[in-house]
Amino acid sequence: MERRRGHLFIISGPSGAGKSTLRKKLLERFPDLVYSVSYTTRLPRPGEREGWDYRFVDEDKFRKLLREGKFLEWAQVHGNLYGTNREDVEKALEDGCDVILEIDVQGASQVKKQMPESVLIFVMPPSETALEERLLSRGSEAPEAIKVRLDNAQKEIASAATYDHIIVNDDINKAVDKLASIIAQYRKHER
Ligand code: 5GP
Fold first, then answer.
1. Is-contact 37 19, C-beta < 8 A?
2. pTM of the model
3. CA gap 18, 99 in Å, rounded
4. Residues 143 and 153 sit within 8 Å (Cβ to Cβ)
5. What's the gap in Å between 75 CA and the centre of ligand 1?
6. Which of 12, 45, 77 to mutate to test the pocket of ligand 1 (most atoms within 8 A of CB)?
7. CA-CA distance, 50 to 32, in Å (whole number)?
8. CB of residue 106 inside a 6 A radius of ligand 1
9. Distance between CA atoms of 157 and 94, rounded to whole angstroms?
């Protein structure tokens, strides 16, 4: 019998919208979802772990991987480079696993072109003020970096209309429920 190909779910949204928290809570509910850990040239934040949060590389290494065609998609975001490992994603999907990516809007549109069946989910902050408050309270970025992230938020929100689903994250538990129901809805169709 032919094995079912996995679904590819892509989560995007402005910095501070709560994407990582949502994704982590989602993985607790669906432990069989495969999260593809991205490469980045950004420096680790306190508490971030190599191979868990990101694969932290310098720019030379990133550009080498890019030349070798290792990325399914890549983009420059807030001044750093980020990319998704092509082989990890393709192998998991072929093995029938559902995969989740947490990437920016530029990367999501690159993947959607290559894999039109992928499901794009946009996480929207409840307001601009809430976004600013979250970025400030996180305390992980310098004021200048926060400004860059807030400026970029406007552009990212403008892309939300191209997404298959939009989740407003005004209550983390409700947002996880919504996200989980979207995932379950796609899985239900062929199980
Ligand atoms: P952060 O530096 O806050 O972890 O991530 C900054 C932005 O980069 C977020 O919007 C995040 O979703 C995005 N990002 C993380 N990994 C990737 C990736 O592999 N590709 C792309 N295009 N964006 C990514």
1. no
2. 0.94
3. 19
4. no
5. 8
6. 77
7. 21
8. yes
9. 32
Domain 8-188: give its CATH architecture. 3-Layer(aba) Sandwich (3.40)
Going from the Cα of 82 to the center of ligand 1, the distance in angstroms, rounded, reads 6
For the chain, which residues make up each domain, given as ranges? 8-188
- Strand 165-168, strand 119-124: pairing: parallel
* DSSP bridge partners of 80: 77
User: Per-residue confidence of the chain (191 residues) as pLDDT tens digits?
Assistant: 677 899 999 999 998 889 999 999 999 999 999 999 999 999 999 899 999 999 999 999 999 999 999 999 999 999 999 999 999 999 999 999 999 999 999 999 999 999 999 999 999 998 989 999 988 888 888 889 899 999 999 999 999 999 999 999 999 999 999 999 999 999 887 65
From edge to edge, which strands make up the β-sheet containing 119-124?
34-35, 99-102, 8-12, 119-124, 165-168
The rounded distance, in Å, linking the Cα atoms of 166 and 123 is 6
54 in Cβ contact with 43 (< 8 Å): no
Q: Ligand 1 center to residue 102 CA distance, Å?
A: 7
Nearest CA to ligand 1 atom 16: 103
Q: Which atom of ligand 1 is nearest to the CA of 11?
A: 12
Ligand 1 centre from 66 Cα, in Å? Answer: 16
At residue 148, what are phi and psi to the nearest 5 degrees? -60, -45
